[in-house]
Here is the input.
Amino acid sequence: RRDFNAGRDSNRTCKAVGALALLVATSRLSRRKLSGLAGNELRHRTSIRVHGGEVRTAPVPVIVLSGFLGTGKTTLLRHWLEHSDSRIGVVVNDVAAVNIDAKLIERQSQGAQGRVQTIQLENGCACCSLGDELLVTIYDLLALQREGEEPFSHIIVELSGVAEPKRVRENFRQAMRSRSEVVEGFELSKVVTVIDASSFCYDYMEYSRMTERPELMDGSSSDGADLKVVELLVEQAEAADVVVLNKTDLASADNLEATKAVVSALNRDARICETSFGRLSLAEVLSRPERPPLAAAVSTALGGEDHGHGNDDEHGHSQECEDPECDDHAHGHGHGPPQGHGHASSSATTAEERFGIRSFTYVAQRPFHSERLAEVLKAWPVSKRDDLCQLLEDLGAEFGDKAAEMSPLARVIRSKGFCWLDTFPSTRMYWSHAGKSLALEHDGPWWGSMTDYQLKVMESMAPGDYERCKRESWTEEWGDRRQELVFIGQRLDESGIRANLDGCLLRDDELDAYAEKQQTDAEEISRGWPMA
Here is the structure.
């Protein structure tokens, strides 16, 4: 559990791969146009809608639907298709798996090996199978509209059970940044994550990987398949604008309360809806104001720092310490809610009040001593419980007090953020803990560690991010290197956790040796890059 795992940075940090996929998608789109599809597709690219004599030029909003296999995503999607008052388009891995009532189908087409490729319903809705690239598939779906037909009011994309929605969000963002024509005519509106309310508490305490739980997967071999069950579970919840708790009829009252409390703590900004059998209208899901369009997010940077080459979690920047007696310039404390972070709200739901779940952000501007940090993490007790609800009940009782004596981290149920280790002076580490799983992984270089040429390359992939980073989280001595960790848990011992982590920071007499190591590391890295 306590691995300083560096084995997945190729999966986590290469946004260049996303940019390459976008170029491939654009290339394939161009070949389609040369084949004679241009006239129809260009008409939809402008998204002109005529309704009651009014011309609307707004792009079609796209809703991404995520969640494990078995949570009820397809049931919810079918409910939307069969009860829609407007014309919606749907992209799924397999059209046939949606199992739409045959009486509602107006026409369908088949692709290779007789596989159903598209279905159009009597109510005007359409469903198509996912092609090689998601963005091009959406583009093609818009081309199904015939002259004079009402345009789609929404496009819904059902992701596979192991898909990571934040990567999909980043693909949209990358396409918007590059002004790719492949996304003209539509934009990402919402990410909706479906969670099985009857199994969330058990999956949260699961230690196995997704590949060991085939019932949660659907044959996909994406990067998410290698994640721990709890890692992907919290990632899907944290990336959502709306969380649908399905199968509430199968969940006990206690487990449902615990699920609501934890999901709310993981994602303060998300709206939580409860249902059974996927009986939730699309209108209800859409009733909350949408996030700003990604076109605007390109300039406003959509919630916190993103280097453009690392993990896309949306961390804000904590307020400086306001304690008048504090004279430690190595850290900002981050008292109170961090600005721009999903846990900024000071109010708590009824469920959170019951379990006493709170959060805070730890910020420091010195590196951790790796060996001292390892000792702190080794003392962190691992619960033997397989039910998160029961663990929360335990932590609220005498057991919690005994566990807290072993480590102030005992009451933490989720922590994540950016980490700066003395052994990796140029590399930002990503700290992610949930349930029984904890990992520190390479997350790409700090901006402050890059040469001018490296900055030029990375800025071309993430325009404006470097300048924003310099405005928000930069010091003359260390650049953007820092500790920024969010802790969520029950009756947290905030002062104890801060004291533990402060004890891991390099002391004054250790900084000179570290500075030499940082300079040597920078020279070695720069030799591996061209000097153009």
Notes: The radius of gyration is 24 Å. The chain is about 35% helix and 20% strand.
